[in-house]
Amino acid sequence: MCQNLSRLPRKIVFHKLALCLFLLLTINAKSQTVIMLDSGFVTGTTVVYPGLEYNRSGYHNFWWGKHYRREWSTAIRVKNFYLDTAKGGLEVTKEGGSRQSMGLRLEDKNGKEYVLRSIDKDFRNGLPEMYYKTFLGHIAKDQSSIGYPFAAITITPMIEATGIYHTNPQVVFVPDQKSLGDYNKKFGNQLYLFEERPDGNQENAPNFGNSKNVIGTDKVYEKIYQDNDNHIDQRAFAKARLFDMFIGDWGRHADQWRWAKFDQGDQNIYRPIPRDRDQAYTRFDGVFPGLATSVLGATWLESFNYHMKNEKRFNTPGRPLDRQFTNELTKQDWIDIANELQKQLTDEVIERGMHQLPPELFAIRGELTILKLKSRRDDLVKMAGNYYNFLSHHVDLVGSQKRELFEINRINKEETRLNIYNIRKNGEPESKPYYSRLFKDNETKEIRVYGLESADIFKVTGNSKSGVKVRVIDPSGEDSLMLEKDHFNKTAIGKRFEFDTLHQKKFDFQIRPLLSPPDYHIFDSDPLDLFTRTGVRVSINFRYATQPWRKAEYENDHLLSINYGFLRGALNAGYIGRLRQFVGKWDAILKARLDIPSVENFYGVGNNTVNDTKTGRTYYSTKSTRLYGSIGVGRMIALHHVVEFSAFYQQVQINHNNVLTDFHEDPSVFGAKQFAGLEAGYWYEHVDNHIFPTRGLRFRLGGGYVQNLQETDRSFLKATSVLSFYVPLGSAFSIAVRGGGGIISGDADYYHLNTLGGNENLRGYARERFYGKDCFYNNNELRWVVPTSNYVFKGKIGLLAFYDNGRVWQPGEISNLWHHGYGGGLIIIPFERAALTGTYGTSSEGGHILLQAQVFF
């Protein structure tokens, strides 16, 4: 239908075009390229819209960003591409592409390879499959408009002027054609970039240096770690990386590079070939994308502008390669390379590059992009210096699997030279180092040296005991360390560390409605139940994680979480630190929490207390300020078992309240009280799903000793235990049963007693309804949950029916009363990320609604 518009009267064309567009956007999932008309007067071309679906309203653009929507929705004329005539005839060898683009690998009659890569990307493919056909997938696809449609073809003249190896992409339109064979339905009638594939023998390709062997990054890593005769051309790589910063291409991960091999005597030199310029000139604007990049911590997603904001953040995706492949360069090397680039990227070169755009697209933003490129070119020396300063702060040096001598020469307290020599078969080092760099104390704080061969030699010499810290990493534990005098004060030794798990740091910031981070629930499962429940909340979280030395599979975590319970008006801030394998296999666990205020109900102590509804909802509500801190150890055993021991300090200040006075509580309860103690906990969990279990078992056992630090004659012992099990009844139904209780021996204040209530273990009753020294409760649920999928939701929805019972015991009270609650509710599990539950429970005291961002148990 869309291919025949040129045969219709012009007045009808636009009506047909509108219908064609509607069908393409609502039915044809294959294609996002909209054909405007077949041009009968320019042979071999087609006029198309690259991505008309991105043309949205001003309101939409305000919230979701203008991006490059005008470019995507502007009609352009493109040459047609037919496989049977291009390059003397091409055949499809396999389907290629990436997660975000479609592609075909092609081959000519001589075996030379080419690729077709779709210009329009689809960010939905980067999401878990369950999101693809939902509104989240629609948002992700819409955000593909951040990319400049034809950025790749503007780069060729500029990168060619610098001498950096490169591909030569062309924009082509691939009509439906028999040459595509079985691929025609999926790949026909689309816009593509057509370019040579940099792989294998490229001796006839000057843009790849006429190399006879081009390989991928994984292979390059293998080569340089196997043999120290293989080297990266670090100046060429740094030049390519500065060019990336110049064009704002932040997506330079390992798969975006190929490597051209060159023989230089007995050495093999590998030079970089950057490819896939999908992220050049990326534009991020709009309210929601800006918030998302900040909240998700994706700070490298920086909009292309006149100046770079932060070289460190921008280069995050490419940083692992940068640390390895520029570690021999000095600051002057980086500056010299930047100066060279500035001379090569003349105004004429930049302008010629941008004029590769179709005139219709250049008219929109071509001149503005030229101005930004010229400004960024003028900043190249500054960019080089800033990025060098960051990379040089900590430097990683990895040897090879050949035997080597690492010579660390402490020249003086400001300078340290590190040389690496190959050791010959006769045991003597070669006269010339294959690596040499002078490190300065004002630039570099630490050098991490990784020896990969079991017989490497590390030699520390020189006239100074201070200077740059050198950390020697010996994977085998069998290397030799030779020291002149005493250099241990600045030389740290590590063992059993794999070279591909280098020391890393991560910072994360999140705002989470309804849910706290999983780690924060450690306060809810405290062995002594020292913390009140926050209820439905909004949570602001800061996480800092570092990878500790010699523990490649672990991270040290530091979490700071601020939680506001907007139904109860409760506010708390908590810190959880976990230092992995701090003592043998045991983690060190640090916890701190401040509640200002902590909010809970109090109806008196005992099993027969009365809830007088005439007094109002706030009468039984108490508020307090609570401070807690602990230090302990814990470990996971065989995946399902967790053990923890800790010592703690707690301070409690109860606010004056009528209910406490009326129940004749000791007046001293209103004073600030301080406690210290020991607690221990054991958790066992083996379930099929941690969010919504239908099969398995959970068990918790906790207890400890608490001492009142002011009234030293008051102390108590406390123990708690909970057992839950889950049994499936077919595919939709399951039964969940829980039993738990606690006992106290000694003299405890009311807020340390065991409690039963609708928010924790006895639905149908108010929160913290019963207080007592001992307690027992039982919860039973019948659950029915089925999968549900539509545009706005994918996950599971179901119903539940429950029956709860329990009681407390208090010395001196005679009671045979058991409390019963029953009711039902709704379960919603969106995208398998959380379980949202709402229940209504009724009892002898009326009905209560409970909303939670988790299952009850």
Q: What characteristics describe this protein?
A:
single chain, 857 residues, alpha+beta, 16-stranded antiparallel sheet, 39% strand, disordered N terminus
N- to C-terminal distance: 57 Å
Q: Biggest sheet: strands, sense, closure?
A: 16 strands, antiparallel
Low-confidence stretches: 1-31, 493-503
Give the helix level as a range of percent: 10-25%
Can you describe what's shown?
This protein is an alpha+beta fold. The chain has four domains: 1-146 and 166-199, no CATH class; 209-393, no CATH class; 399-495, no CATH class; 505-852, membrane protein fhac: a member of the omp85/tpsb transporter family (Porin). The protein contains 16 helices and 39 strands. The relative contact order is 0.06. Mean pLDDT is 87; it is low at 1-31 and 493-503.
Summarize the structure.
The protein is of the alpha+beta class. The chain has 16 helices and 39 strands.
List the helices and strands and how they pair.
Blueprint lengths: L9 H17 L7 E5 L6 E5 L8 H7 L4 H4 L3 E4 L11 E7 L4 E6 L5 E6 L16 H8 L8 H12 L7 E5 L9 H4 L2 E7 L17 E3 H10 L3 E3 L1 H14 L9 E8 L2 E8 L12 H9 L15 H4 L4 H7 L5 H14 L2 H8 L4 H20 L1 H14 E5 L5 E7 L4 E8 L12 E6 L5 E5 L6 E6 L6 E6 L5 E4 L7 E5 L9 E9 L23 E10 L9 E10 L4 E14 L2 E16 L19 E17 L3 E14 L3 H5 L10 E15 L8 E13 L6 E15 L3 E14 L7 E3 L13 E3 L1 E16 L4 E16 L9 E12 L5 E8 L2 E7 L5
Parallel strand pairs: 10-12, 13-17, 14-18, 17-19, 18-20, 19-21
Antiparallel strand pairs: 1-2, 2-3, 4-5, 5-6, 6-8, 7-8, 9-11, 11-12, 14-15, 15-16, 22-23, 23-24, 24-25, 25-26, 26-27, 27-28, 28-29, 29-30, 30-31, 31-32, 32-35, 33-34, 35-36, 36-37, 37-38, 38-39
